[in-house]
Every structure is written in C-alpha cells, then in structure tokens.
Amino acid sequence: MQAPTRPEDAGGHHPQSVPGAGSELPARGEYVVRNAHVITMDETLGEIEDGDVHVRDGAIVAVGRGLEAPDAETIRGDGLIALPGFIETHWHMWGAVARNMSGHVEGTGYYYVSRLLGKFFTPQNNACGVRLALAEGLYSGITTVNNWSHNLLDPGYADAEMRAHLAAGGRACFSYGYSRKTPKDSTLPLEDIADFQDRWFKGGTRTPDGLISLAIAPRGPENNPIETCATEWEFARARGIRVTSHMGTNPKRVDDRQGIQTLAKAGLLGPDLLLIHVTHHSDEDLRLLAETQTPVSLSPYTELRTGFGITPVGKFLEAGVPVSLSVDTTILCGNADMFAIMKAIENIENGRIEDEFAISSERVLEMATINGARALGIDDQVGSLTPGKRADLILVRTTDVNMMPKTVPTRMLVQSAEPNNIETVMVDGRLLKKGGRLTTIDLDDLVKETAETIERARVEASVPGAGEGIQELI
Ligand SMILES: [Zn+2]
Fold first, then answer.
1. Contacting residues for 263 by C-beta, under 8 A, at least 6 apart
2. What spacing in Å lies between the alpha carbon of 243 and ligand 1's midpoint?
3. Is the N or the C terminus of the chain less surrounded, counting Cβ atoms within 10 Å?
C-alpha cells in the first residue's frame, strides 16, 4: 500500500532488479544525503530535522545541518527519514527457499519439514536460500544479518554461503552451526571451523573488507552436556569468536536442564554470547543474564507461530538484559519485515501487561539498530549514524499513503512503515537498493533458482522412507 512519489519508485511489492546486477559490487562513492529527517541513534547527536549525512569511502564523514561536501554526489532527502540500517541477530537463511512450508498438523511442522528438506540440500541450494534471504533483507532495510547456519553438512556448504554473502554486499555475522551429521552430544566440527576462519577471516574475526564477522552456533546446554559446551566456548574464546545458542523455548527444559544456570556455573555467560528466544526462564536466569550482560535475540513472529510463547520483552528490559530482534526463519514467520517485527514487539508488550505506555517506539528502534550491533559485537562499526562508523543507512519515504502526514518519525517507523517505503539502502558506502530497486541481486535469476531448488528438494523428500529418523534429530 503505497503511492509512488516518482516514476522510478514504482517497484510494487515485487522488488525489481537492475540490468547487469550481481556481476560485481557497486563502487563505494562519496555521497551527501541532504535535508532528511535524520534519526542517528547516537546518544549525543539525537535526531536532526533537515539534516545531512556525508559519506566517503564507505565511512560516515559528518552528520549535521548544511554540511560542506563539494565533491559529493547529492542524494535528495526531502520527505525522507534517514536512519541506520536494521541489524537483525538470528536468521536460518539457508531455509529461506522453504518459505511457509511448515504446516498446521503433526508431521508437517517446522522442525520436521526443515530437517527433512535440509537433508537434500546441496551447498548451492543453501547458497540459494541465503541469496533469497539477503535479497529480502536488503530490500527491507536489514543491512546486517546474523546468518545462523545450521545445515552445514560439510565445509563446502559454509563456503557456498559465504560466496553468496560477498556477492550481495550486505553486512553479516556468519554463525557456523551444526547439521544433521553432527552426532548427538558431540561438539561442532571445530577443526573445520578453525580452517574456515583461517581461509575466510585470515585467522581473525572479520573478513579483510570488514563486512562479515564470525561466530559459532552450538546446540547449547539444553541439548548437549555442559562439558561439550565448555569445549566449544573455550575454542571460540581462544580465537576471539563469539558464541550464539538457542535457549529457553521449552518450559520443561528450563526446569530440567537449567541451561542458563548451568552456563553461569561454568563461567560461560557474558557479552560475547548471544542467546536466542529465552521465552521461558526463571527470575534467577534473568538476574544472571543481566549481571553478565548476556544479550538475547527475540523473534516475535516465530516465537508466536511455533508456540514458544508470548515474547516477554518487558521482563528482559526490566531486568536490564540487552535485547535485539530477529527474523529466525521465514519457513515459519513468512517474511523478513523488521518494521513488522518492531511493531509486534511494541504491541505484544503493551497487550501482555495491559498498559498503553509499557514500551515506546524509541526503545524498540534501539533494539533493531544499535542493540543489534552490540549483540553481534560490531557496534564499533555500525548501529548508529556516528562520524567514523561505516556507512550503513536507509532512507524511508514519509510521503507514501501509509506514512503521511509527517508526525513523529520514530512512531512512523515502528507503527506505519513497511519495506516498500524504503527508497535507498546503503551498506559500507555502497548503494544496494536505489530508487526502490536492488542493485546486486538479479531477481529474475532468483525466481527461477528458488523455484527449482524447492521443487527438487520436495520431490526427493517425498520418496517413501525419506523422513525416517528425522523426528529424533536435533
Ligand atoms: Zn532459531
């Protein structure tokens, strides 16, 4: 629902690609966004009406009014809100080609379907899912994703996914996870991960261009013995890699396994660990997360859809636990719309505690930007429009029918906006969505490739006996 303001904006709900897209990344230019309503998410700079953002060689040079930038190409900001790109913190991207495949009866649910289809995916199929997820994410203003990759049947899968990231040009954390081939109670394939780190990250934690950081995604203490977790955590910490794990989705496991308290006793909580969901927890769990500043990632649409419970965002905030937001999987939640996720977070909390004033749009916008950057350990690079940080920003139209008239910009973003309102997406100084169109992913190719991928996997998965043993896998 939008009224395009200019002919080149007419993208409809199906984002169009530009000819020749995908061959190489656009150059990092020198740009100045002029006269936008700038929401910096920087505590000192705040919001600037009729503000400018000057970008050069992928970095933010200056933010303010009437900036001098004689050599910069002007990007008109009238009628637009400029803000940092969204940073989502948990997404099983490989499965994006199975969008909406989880059914509503036993034997067709998310876990069964994703594990079954995943068995038949090739490295190229995983990469196709990542490419689709990146296309949707970039179109929707998500400039950083946490690719929580848990269908890595061998290292070739991780390599194929990395190539998809580099070709699309967005920022990412690559969280190297387990697969159907990782035996129960065993660690992640640590030798493979060490080799992966050496090859792609030159032994460090970011790729040479700084766009992709590395984490590991183990099964965690609700599924594995704490000794296994300790080995994984020690491996990661010795190499400067962050850790991210699912937690607290099942009340029985919270009671029986006491995952958070077990991690605390073993000294494994901390700001370099990101826990996912944690919809079920004890008061003591919250106290431990706050004390150690261990962040959580909340994905309200999958938490609701799969029955993990009502996302208890206010309880984390009250306890002082850092909160960021995520897509999780479009197999369950249908799409990757961070505006909708923010709106759900605000409305769920107000409804949950029956208070119109429980949570503000400003607070929710922090979760989708700077808090996400902190949760992934990249707040030195992104998360706010601060001079010196990398230039990841989006421009959102306020003149579309679902946005007008301009009132309170933070509320317009959280309560009214949708991906179609995003005119421009810049990552590291590169324009990856321009005039409403993606510049690095060819959508005509993607339509064909995604259809072929899911059709082949469906045919192979429908062979009698294909699903044997799937329910027992974790
Ligand atoms: Zn997940």
1. 221, 226, 229, 269, 273
2. 14
3. N
Note whether 315 and 285 are within 8 A (CB).
no
What the block records as the tokens of 314 is 């206010």
Residue type, 442: D
69 Cα to the center of ligand 1, angstroms: 44
The string over 389-420, giving b where at least 16 C-beta atoms fall within 10 Å of a residue's C-beta and e elsewhere, is bbbbbbbbbbbbeebeeeeebbbbbbebbbbb
156 Cα to the center of ligand 1, angstroms: 22
Collect residues with CB below 5 Å from ion ligand 1: 328
- Parallel, antiparallel or unpaired: strands 296-298 and 273-277: parallel
Q: Could you state, in chain order, the average pLDDT of each consecutive group of 10 residues for the chain (474 residues)?
A: 36 41 79 98 98 98 98 98 98 96 90 91 97 98 98 97 98 95 92 98 95 98 96 98 96 89 98 98 97 98 95 97 98 97 97 95 98 98 98 98 98 98 98 97 96 92 77 57
Q: How far is CA 216 from the centre of its chain?
A: 15
Distance 91 CA to ligand 1 centre (A): 7
* pTM metric for this prediction: 0.94
Q: Determine the distance separating the centroid of ligand 1 and the alpha carbon of 236, expressed in angstroms.
A: 20
Distance between CA atoms of residues 182 and 435, nearest Å = 44
| Cα 329 to ligand 1 centroid, rounded to whole Å | 7
Strand partners of residue 245: 275
> Could you tell me the distance, in angstroms and rounded to a whole number, from the CA of residue 332 to the centre of ligand 1?
11
Ordered by where they begin, the domains of the chain are 7-85+382-443 (2.30.40.10), 86-375 (3.20.20.140)
- Residue 82's SS3 state is strand
Let me know: does 441 contact 131? Beta carbons within 8 Å: yes
Cα–Cα distance for residue pair 416/377, rounded to 1 Å: 30
For residue 149, report the distance from its CA to the centre of ligand 1, in Å.
9
CA 183 to chain centre: 28
CA atoms of 39 and 47, how far apart (whole Å): 5
CB 338 within 8 A of CB 141: yes
Which positions ≥6 away from 302 have C-beta within 8 Å? 308, 327, 328, 329, 332, 333
